[in-house]
Amino acid sequence: MTDTLLPREKLLDLLKEASDVFRHASSKTKILSTLSWSESVAQDFFKHGATRLPEPVYSVDKKGLEEALEALRTIQMKISGKHPVLEWLQRTYESFENGIRLLQTIETPEFFKASADVYGSCSSPVGSGKTTMLDLAVDVSGRMVACSLQNLEEKAAVKTAKEFAADLEHRLAARTPHMPVRVEITPHLSAKIAASATRIRIRENAEFSLMELEALWNHEVESHCLTGQNGMAQKNIPFLSGGGPRTTRTQEGIAVFYEIFGHSMSQMRFIRLCNRIEAINNVEKGADFIELYRWFLLRSETPQEAFYDTQRIFRGAILGGKYPFTKDAVYLAGLLEVYQFLQSSVRIQDRILVESLVTGRIALEDVGVIAWLRLHGIVDPPVFIPGWLSNWEALLSFFSFFSVVLNSVDMTSFDSYLDAHRDVHEWKVPV
Length: 431
Prior knowledge:
The protein has 431 residues and is mainly alpha-helical. It is 57% helix and 5% strand. It has a domain at 127-421. Helix 1 runs parallel beside helix 5 and helix 15 crosses helix 16 (367-375).
């Protein structure tokens, strides 16, 4: 129940004003780009034999952050109330405040608290709260490493950054409807690739396998670029192109879901996502940059990749440990939550609810508000539809089978068969 009624015209005016403020705040709150390290930091690290703590330098626009805070405060009272739309705007307001606080506390203990407020931490609950992000990572990685990692296609890096960029540009040119996204190569990335609504950046010294081309297309273009562009197309609520830091968990969950649904998620990729959560936990326990680098070195193909994975956890953080950057904790939790949402929505065959998920960069708890706004003609249907949603019947079949059939069938006899034949390779039976 709500105690606040919003006439349509008043609501439209408020959404426009809030959008102007949130877009301004978003332009000043570039978290990942502000926390990025120059390539010279990695070069110096290896020059000294990987034995000295790196010395990253951050350029924080303190004046711009204060201006963003001032702009946010101009709408604070206007968005108070218990109407679902107002509560959504309040959550977005708080998210930008937290993002600004994160950037204002770089290289201090308070940075970790701000990071946990924005992204969660290893101890943050997933689902009902009985499982933490760390529990989930340990469980998934334990199941994955039990399988052989030999002869995997992902091990063969056959594409340079330049070749990979050309492949992406070719696929973008062929996409229908056309999505205006430019591709750039840069040295300043901890990830191999990163995407905004209109731009994809590729780390210039990265190499890619054929499998990664499909995975990163699904993750970056058909998820991150797509939701950003859909948000940009919203004439009444254009701030949906950004949405605020709080949307990260759901947005990464959508992207990882498409990697899996699109059959492009490899075993090694899944293990890397788990490793990053365990790495955050190691730093929370006190591991410094050198210690975590050596931990990753045992789990990486090259020293360079071990450095970049370690760098991800220490962006903006004190390099001596205890206060990590926790953004990498969101991937598995986001995946699980998005999967559960889609399973429930498909079961009741509510396509508008599912389409609301990709209407812009939103958090999962905002879907109902977006669907309500669409039903009232304030939010438009998404311009771009991801491949996993373009075939509604296939999505319906996928979730119907796995959520209904498998949960209702007793598979214990098959489990018994597998248990009996688990050691088949060790049978010593003469032919």
